[in-house]
Fold each of these.
Amino acid sequence: MKKWIVALAVLLAFGTAAPAAALTGQSPQDTVKMVIQPQYSYAFPFSEGLAAVAVDDKIGFIDRNGNFVIRPAFDGRQASATENGLYMFREGRALFRDNGKYGYLDKRGKIVIEAKYDRAFPFQQGLAAVVKDGKLGYIDRNGNTVIPHVYHYDPLETENPSFQDGLAKVATKSGNTILYGFIDTTGKEAIPPREWLVEPFSDGLALVRDSSGGKLELYYIDTAGKKVLDLTGRYSRAYGFYSGMARVEKDGKIGYINKNGREIVAPSYTYALNFSEERALAKIDNAYVLIDRNGKESERLAYSYIEKFGNGLAMVESVTWDFSAGKLKQERKTGYIDPAGKEVIPPQFDKGQGFSEGLAAVQIDGLWGYIAKPGLEQPSDWAKAELAEAAALGLIPQGMDQGFRNAMTRAEFAGLAVHLLTVAWDKPVDDMLKERGAAVDPHAFRDTRDETVLAAHALGIISGRGNGIFDPEGAINRQEAALMLAQTANLLGVQPGGKTETFADADEIAPWAREAVTAVSAIFDPFKEVPVMTSTGNGRFSPKSAYEKQQALITVKRLYQAKRSGD
């Protein structure tokens, strides 16, 4: 009975959703929801559920309701462009600064690693790059040195030394010559140091510019160090891959290629940025355009500045001039556009930042607060019917009936998968574990003690990111979700029975996820005649894209229906 009450409530909520402007006649900018009022001298983006804010030159951390979780006590100087990740949580640790030295906090505000490093970087893949006495090394989340401080560090030359795709770019000196190579997370040399110019890995490839033979060689290597894409002679310059696309330059103009080396956009722009969330930004004359993965341009956008996309929106800046009282006055205002170039939030703020975890910091009259991404609370039209079915079946856990367009965290998805099992088997978690002889290991991960996450681990639904890290607050991407769903399907005894779907971006799916993606795209909800997971459009799976809560709930519902049909 309760399930149908919930379903009715969900249906009523979904059926009556309407923009505030449509109900009140207000202008679009009146629909912007200021969730945390402007009151801070500076504000940082949200990361892992918390955001750093400055009050009286001290930094503290607030939650999404604006409540202080960590009282202001840290150095309140704003982060500079060279201090990537300062006061941002990554893998349960936030980098902070004290008297010119760097250390790390946990989410309770406890200093877990003292400020003793000359330079430090955010945690990534369980390790953080830190500099001490001019040498670079790596520490774990407890501050233990895992890889000794033996590598060359130059604050002006060293690129991002964090681990990416399991490898970190490091430098050694041989006389006056600097050699670059890559190490793995154990410190083992994966690609030997050489006298070449090589960039850190991105999207599984690293760009090499090698002039040692007397002419410029331009190519990409994979994580085994093998040359996989040679651009020598084709372009004068190239850049790293992002979202499966890389910028290339010829005769002073920029275009884009895919991982097969196919030219998607011929070099024609004097200014262009990397792809971000399926869009790249370029300039024609004095106007911006957005480019999709097929090379199609948007209409020209008359903004003075456009930032990269985050959470589906990009920050834009508009400049107007006013001549009054004999003076010419310039006014800059910040707003946000969607991937089609449509103005979702008209420019109205003095300053702004990109959206992160559904919120964006904006400045009004010198003070910073936070706005919510429009439409996050209500589900998309395409999702309403299936979400109502999920509610009727009791598959929406308590607390997950809101924020449908928010990115799902890894911990939330683990909880959702466990909840599906309790509904499908009509048994509590403890009974499921006991029947399978599975025992919860409270020390399975160093960054979470969440009972549901640990139960999901004991049942074999999830694993970590390595080195005891689960990253509970990190946004789950589509290939990670596919793996968890496939593991859950295996527990339910649901086997693929439909036609396997072939995706246009199959080469972008990580090897560890390919079998799972194949499986979940071939398991069908017989009542809707749709697979558990399918393409995001244009035949793409988009493996590294964040997974929205509404998508997660619907895929779990489809898997449940597949289970019911087989019983």
Note: The longest strand covers residues 313-324.
Amino acid sequence: MLGSSGRAFGQGVPDSAGTARDSIRARVAQQLTTVIVTPGTYGLLSPVRGSAQSLGREAILTRPQLGEDLFRSIQRLPGLASSDFGASFHVRGAEVDQLHVSLDGLELYEPFHMKDFDNALSILDVRSVEGIDLVTSGFTSEYGGRLGSVLSIRSRAPRTDRMRTSLGVSVSNLRAQAEGGFSDGRGGWSLAARRGYLDLALRLAGRSDSLSPTYNDLFATVTWEAGPRHRIAAHALLADDVMEYRVKDGGIASRYASRYGWVTWDADVTPTLTARTVASVGRLAWARTGDAQIVSGGPRSTVDDDRSAGFAGVRQDWMWSASERVILKFGAEWKPARAEYEYDGVRIRRVVIADTIARIPTLVSSGRSVRGSQLGAYVAPRLRPVRWLVAEFGVRYDRTTWSGDASMSPRANVLLTLSPATTLRLAAGRYTQPRQAFALQVQDGVTEFGRADESQHRVIGLEHRLGRSALARVEAYERRVTRQEPRFINLRGDLRVFPELEPDRILLPATSGRARGLEFSLRGLGQGGVDWAASYAFARVTDRVGTTDVARTWDQPHSIYLDATWRPQGGQWHFSIASQAHSGWPESPVRFVLDTVKNSKGTMSSTVLTVYGPVTALGTLRLPWYHRVDARVTREATFGRWHVAGFVDVFNVFDKENPAAIRYKTSSANNRITVTRIPELLLGWLPSAGITVEF
């Protein structure tokens, strides 16, 4: 276990011969705590001790990425799927909300800007981050409340020797960061702020409509070394979004706010017993109003959505180094929460009644208040009975009051060192995910919490170092969703700001599901100034509806990712290129029905009705294969105490047309239907540039 400064717990200052022996034992046991026992673990920005599967800060910052975004910088790891528009990603087919995201020990909920546009950017500047650990499945018992995967983020510890300032400007945002120390270096502070203006980037991409999104975020930290055994840090993370968008067929005005404040206390209670305490408060707010012309020739569908959530929490994690071969992890957390819902929507549907076209309005309204708490506790011993074997066996208990859920989750992780160059990791366990207090689909008429979803993970991973030049990994996994609540989805994958109003909105009555796959990855270790990585994944993710396996909307049977960066001698220039290709996403068949109706003159004429579904047909059709190449050039220079870095980035270098969905235009004549397929395209060629000055 590490504090946010990277200092290992358990390394206290000995004050006698006895405590000195304890300290030596603790340092030896610390090697056991840093062993990575979970398959599918990736360390980003700073290396993960115990695993060579890591990407350093230089590799991350010089990779092609849109918007200099924390989440976008890692989207090409094996097993991840995402769209061009969004920073959020699906790990091994799981939904976005099945990813547990934490920052310095605090869980973050929906940590994205521009939620109406597929979570376009994350709310944390990548330059404020020291390290990221992504665990794609089979994570250990200290994490609860999620079915899929874990993303743990550690902020950069402030430099305390002198004040440092960083200023940056790019096509998408302005950013400023400052840090320094006080009390002779015992205390430190840092402040990072961004102001975004994505409307400029969208104009460069050829968008000339009224879309005008703005966002800002701020992250502040103060740290204090309260003696050789105690470190205290206070954090604040604030984010806001404002967007207005008006076109002929409708418009939206939205505002979002995220507020987090928390204090962490890392303590070496004794040389062999360490603890971390996190106390937190937070608030989220959502507001959407607007209208859309879903049905031509009729009234507009409307939405007025105003929600908020408040939460707090106390968490403690303990680790006891019983011996050089045994450590014990245990902890608990309590999180009271509340949520307020105020939703009113009117949806217009076009139907034929007798021989008349009717536009039927449906009112969806919900005013609801939710109060309750979540309790979690875990215990997990880790053992090294022999030099080549490390095993961790844990069990977790979770209870959620607003849904009445309570569960026990046993988990096991094993590491076998087969040779100095080869390791085998295995994981198996049970995972549960209750609904968050603010996550009811009230926009679809859902007003009650269902039971928690449950899944079982089984993972096996083999990692082998090929001399000093490359590292190879192969992993097989299966995630069985043994219980899940029905949910509403859209059958098409194009971008909609009011997805609940669309005619392809449908209930997916799945009660179970399955994700399985095989991943191969190969990564160079930076020989000759070239960093590179390549991966291929075969995967399927389905939901079970009755006796039918239905493909999830992010099912990618085949995906290939390639990254390469060349750093010429001297290291001031970086030339990077990235390519990705994957199977087309599932599409739902669309039926067109010709009917005869009375027109405005009272005579009979033909009309075409579009019928989406059934949901069990999702995936019987697929979009074309997706392919994209990105490139980035980075130049760095140092002038005394000044460091300057600039970049030019091109997204979709060859302007490849990748459809997100297919739109259909219909007409009829002589009792025949004519259908025109119109691809709804993802992002095309998009240049960006930026410069950062540090001093």
Note: The radius of gyration is 26 Å.
Amino acid sequence: MNRKTQITVSTHVARDFLQNAAYFSTLPKVVWEYVSNSLDNAKDEQPVNVVVDIHSSVMHIADDASGMSRNDLRDFFQMHGENRQRRRGKLVRGRFGTGKCAAFGIANYLRIDTTKAGKRNVVELQRHDIEAAKSGEPFPVRDIIVDEPTDQSDGTLVEIHDFNIKRLDIEGTMAYIERHLSRYRQRAKVIINGQECQFEEPQASEQFTFSPPSDVAKHVGNVTLMVKVSPVPLEPENNGVDILSHGIWHETTLAGLQNKEMAQYLFGEVDVPILEDKEWPIPAFDNTRNNALNVQNPVVAVLLGWIAQELENVRQKLVEAERARRRSEEAKKLEKEASRIAEILNEDFEKLQMEFEFARRISSRQGKVRTSETTGYQTELLPGKGLEPTAWQEAGNPHGEGTRGKTSGHGDTPRPGPDLIPGSQAGSSKSFIDGSRKRRKGLFSIEYRNESAEKHRSRYEAETRTIIINLDHPQIAGAYHSSGRNTEARQFREISYEVAAVEYALAIPYEKIDQEGDWYDASTALYDVREIINRVMRKFSKILS
């Protein structure tokens, strides 16, 4: 009688290892994994210092945390093992024991040099060692130094090299680490390539706190949701409510309010301990390090629904306040002044558009030339559709009246002569014709907003061609208040016009780049900025005089 072989669950260790490494596909994720390991391994009541040096061929991550013993290293390299700090009752970020894989998401070599309690251990692991374990058996980590007595202080040095990614995004890595540190409730200093990571908490002009209703509290606990309002639109990474558990950050969410009016001003946080304290058949989060909670988890679903409701209540208040502000008498006066400025800028911009069109037409016959090299007719009306008289007419043979052919295009030999010749053909300055397509005539607009004293005095929104003047900037606020908040006061108007002229002059090169691309160089752009400021301010001075 044949004995039945027991079926057991097993794993292909090498394949499992490399599949987990794939979660760490970028430099920022890898650096944060080892930095957070250092933070989790802090000595009691002591801040951690982490120094990261990233170069084209090698990366080092060094800390002054607790270090690791030989047994700690053995635990560290166990796949999906329980975090040793958690086993000791310390709440830390790590849960799934996959951090040792991180280096192999972007590189082929990992070396760990660690000291604890006067003993130094150095180990290394290489990708070819992992790939050599083809039958799925455990693969060895190479011992370089084992329990060597040392007088070095406790700490760990991680070395990663032989990168397999094309670009090392240092700036993006710093931003990523700074965002994570801002949500990390622990004293720490992280320096990357000699620069300390620092995160500036967004300013809040208003703040609301919410406690969950009883039907929500029975799922999420007696937590407090803090919702804050920024005086200016937030960057995407700062926009939304941080969801933490015992101070460990798991997600930032707007809970479905993305792209709704005023939602870009909202941020805040809520700490939900039950997410870390309890286990469910459907987990609250996974090991992909994607900073997103699992919406299939029942507690997460209730939590996000509650956050969405409270955020929407705050958003509606902001929308009403903004609409009331726009209706206010003071706002109407500011809007009137903004319209005056916009009228002059748009008059100037229409002439520049004519220059763009003239350069385009000339370049289509004579080869590509820069706008700055076309002289003479920049402010003339061009012939085409319209009734206004011009000093020009379109040249070339007249079009026939035959049927459309099967092919069309340029001939082998260009038709001689210019597209425009002196004449009296009618045209229009209100639109430009390019083939059968009407080219967009975009207008500049001006808006006064309260965006806090720390923000720039003005900014430009390219998508809508809107120049924002910050009423809270000390220079503008000083002129406004010293004028008794009178929009007609010369001091206030002078600073407003000067700010608008500068932003307009800086915006025009982007318009020209769209028209001319690489043919528009930096020296021409600088020349244009100076000329535009001078020209527009002369027009403004006539109004102010």
Note: The first strand starts at residue 48 and ends at 54.
